[in-house]
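User: Hey, my collaborator sent me this sequence without any context and asked if I could get a structure. I don't really work with proteins. Can you help?
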Amino acid sequence: MIEANQSSVSEFLLLGLSGHPQQQKQILFVLFLSMYLATVLGNLLIILAISTDSRLHTPMYFFLSNLSFVDLCFSSTIVPKMLSNILSGETIYITECLMQMYFFIMFGDMDNFLLAVMAYDRFVAICHPLHYTAKISHQLCALLLIGSCGIAIVNALLHTLLMAQLSFCADNRIPHFFCDVAALLRLSCSDTYLNEMMILTEGGLIMMIPLICILVSYICITSAVLRVPSAKGKWKAFSTCGSHLAAVSLFYGTIIAVYFSPSSSHSAENDIAAAVMYTVVTPMLNPFIYSLRNRDIKGALTKMISMNCFYVQQ
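Assistant: No problem. I've predicted the 3D structure and written it out in structure-token form, which is a compact way to encode the shape of the chain:
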């Protein structure tokens, strides 16, 4: 009976944003659909602008275009299913749930690593400008990207395989809008000690090491900039880092609030609100943050749009 009961759950019901009156569901659907379309359009424009403008074929913009691609994939892993669930409240099969969790972890880790790599790029550019081309070579950029992808894939696969070993019985309702690791562990009737230890140790290291690298990079950058004699020089140096700092603050602020705050301060509503920030809002805002504060990106976007308009008129 125990084995039959444990294998009885083959699908889950995502409760996150579906427990609202019908009118509110329609408003939520339009709101999140608009945000998702803005995410897709914004990140695609960043990728196209960088790929079509030869002046932007530099390490900084190489990492930025990859960050835009990862943000687009990260949001696409979560939002389409959330939109479908808002309207219909349909269930999600365990295999589909595990696949969503895998891609969520993988793209989240890649976002994490790319932000750290971009901080290192800014550190070399500001603190060692004369050696920038030697230190940040095309080979190093490719290795950093491949390494980030490799670690993210292995980490996501490890957590997914461990989750697949668990049994789920009785309650199949997930109080979230996607298959979050913590929410799934709370539903399992198996021993989740190994999963929890992996999240705290290996998962914690994967989150904290890039964050430490970012903090160290910006401490060194701040120290170097403060030694610049002119106020104009200081402002120019800090302005090149402003967009990246804003993206880092958005991403890590919500991640830390959800996964590294005391469990006593957690509630389903707060976790869902924070998850909306890093799965929907942050990928949508990143293109605007980088384009509005970056003269090169704005120039490339203007050039690309004007060329397209010219071809359409012809």
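In plain terms: Strands lie at 11-14, 91-93, 173-174. You can pass these tokens on to your collaborator as they are.
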